[in-house]
Write a structure and sequence with these properties.
This protein folds into two domains: 141 residues, Rossmann fold (3-Layer(aba) Sandwich); 60 residues, no CATH class. By secondary structure, the protein is of the alpha/beta class. The N and C termini lie far apart (43 Å). The longest helix has 16 residues. It has a six-stranded parallel beta sheet with strand order 3-2-1-4-5-6, sandwiched between helices. A two-stranded parallel ribbon has the order 7-10. Strands 8-9 form a two-stranded antiparallel ribbon. The chain is elongated and about 70 Å long.
Amino acid sequence: MPTLNTNEPLRIAILGVLAKHKGFGLISEALKVAEKRSAPLEIRLIGFSEEALYPVTNGLFTETGAYVDAQLPDLIDDFNPHIILFPARWPETYSYTLTTALNSRRPIMVPNLGAFPERVASRPWTWVVDLDISAAELVDQLCEIRVKNFANSTAPDTLEKKGLSVAQPLEDDIFYEKKYLSLGNNIVVKTIRDMRAQGKLTALVMVENVGTQPSPCAYIRLILPLIRERGKNFYFRLVTT
């Protein structure tokens, strides 16, 4: 973990594409709050924002631009953040960038949402914040942990010690082998076939894949809703190649 000197800002990294569902609004407003307060923070988006963030001119915020996945560990090391922040406002089924953050062995802050809490369960130097945290509250908490934890090299309580209910961490291989498509039993087929039937809606949908599996975004936003509703008004099959 990087040390923090008395007059040094807390370095905060955000990974990936900052879209609305990834926390764009929260971060844009947090930049405004932090600039107004002259908060001792330095935020770097390792990636890029889909929209223009609140403009700051005092070195509070920088953005690297797009990267390829293999570059991410080095980009994290180059910035040497004290903490990696995940400001997502929409649930993730897994989060590849969280895997990279975990592998970096750096402190992490995540929302109490989706797969985040269970993947960081029992992990030291980790904060889980409320999904509804405001920009002002986020800036307050970052400034607080800068002094309380980082300046004094004092680890926060684990989630269990705080009395929070957390699941056991999911091992990556078990998750993909046994959990990823567990709700989709008997829906995966290898070839397209005619599923048209009177009174039933038929649609062919092409989903984003990562290797041979649907991407996390495709899984949570498209496949899961269709799995849960199939049989009522339509049939559903997932065709893999």
